[in-house]
Amino acid sequence: MPVKFKESIPQKLFNLFNIFFMICLMGVTIYPMLHVLFASLSNAPLLMKHQGLLLMPEGFSTDAYIAVFKNEMIPLGYRNTLFIVTVGVAVNLILTSLGAYYLSRKDQFLVKYIMMFVVFTMFFSGGMIPSYLNVKQLGIDNTLWALIFPVGISTFNLIILRTSFLGIPDSLDESAKLDGAGHWTILTRIYIPLSKAVLAVLVLYYGVGHWNAWFNAMIYLRNRDLYPLQLILREILIANDTSSMLQINADVNQVAETIKYAVVIVATAPILCLYPFLQKYFVKGVLIGAVKG
Fold first, then answer.
1. Helices 155-166 + 196-212 axis angle, to 10
2. What global pTM score does this model have?
3. Which stretches of 104-144 are DSSP H helices?
4. Looking only at Cα atoms, what is the longest distance across the chain?
5. Degrees (nearest 5) of the Cα angle 48, 53, 57?
6. All domains of the chain, ordered by start, with CATH?
7. What is the pLDDT of residues 139-178, one digit of tens each?
8. Which of 149, 169, 175, 166 is nearest to 100 (CA)?
9. Burial 52-65 (b: 16+ CB within 10 A, else e)
């Protein structure tokens, strides 16, 4: 039978304080999202009069969401962002897996020196102007490919996956070579299946990065039909531009403030829904691919 130890009074006080602190921390984390949600569902005139914490919608109105989905730029932004996320994550995983596999080979020529150059890029880059000139000379400016190929590999994620590959026993590698397997077979049949947890974490990292990206789009894109969702969100929130929605009907003028909150919910809800499905891999994947000395 398990032995139960009686907690002392200081231990009980510490546990109570710890629980109270974590509840407060959870409230501080969750409340901003709840505030945006409640504001988006509020009646605009009542919301403008409200002061202090918003603990529930002021009235109830879905006019802001109706105005958001009537704006033709929002579905267009969703389409562009979904393309960038889907194709971008696929490109990221392919290039990162290939790079990590090569850099994890201990018998390959100049691997240590190449790894030094790779790490160097984490701290120093050519800058914005050389990057723009590169994209322009490649002929992919003002296309969605300009938001995918220049960020094809994250050095940080490459190091995580490389470290995971280094943790795979050499005996598996040697056994596969004795059976006549080549590098492609070893990568796809051994390394990738054994690194599913790390790859799931990289999907989350790359996916969130693509979903939230707007700066490169602002630099490389001139055609508004190619704008991703976050760049449209920036126009609405930062530039305070709700004109494309306010022209739909006169009543929308009353919900200009709640439109901003509704756009935030529409833009962040999909990525929040994706996280629970990858959460079980998150801690395991990060620990497996943790950077070691």
1. 180
2. 0.76
3. 111-123, 128-138
4. 75
5. 60
6. 62-293 (1.10.3720.10)
7. 888 888 989 998 888 888 898 888 888 888 888 877 888 8
8. 166
9. eebeebbeebebbb
